[in-house]
Design a protein that fits this description.
about 80 residues, alpha+beta, 1 helix, 4 strands, about 15% helix
């Protein structure tokens, strides 16, 4: 039987390493959003491989974490 890789996701040690890997594979680095601790997360994709890295500083585009119950929004 032939094995297939559906998706391979791994975290890199730093954004610098992620950028070097992206350059090597000629793929762009994009901003994925903040993690739960408020640090920016960046990613690059090539084929079925996805690599992510977290920035060391606070996210420059913080998004408030907010959840609203469906029971509260009943009409």
């Amino acid at each position: 039987m032939k094995r297939r890789t559906v998706c391979d996701i791994r975290e890199m040690g730093s954004v610098t390493v992620l950028r070097k890997l992206a350059h090597l594979h000629r793929s762009p680095v994009s901003y994925a959003g903040p993690d739960i601790y408020g640090h920016p997360v960046y990613l690059t994709r090539f084929g079925t491989v996805e690599r992510v890295a977290r920035g060391a500083s606070r996210d420059p585009n913080p998004q408030p974490l907010r959840w609203r119950s469906p029971l509260e929004t009943r009409a």
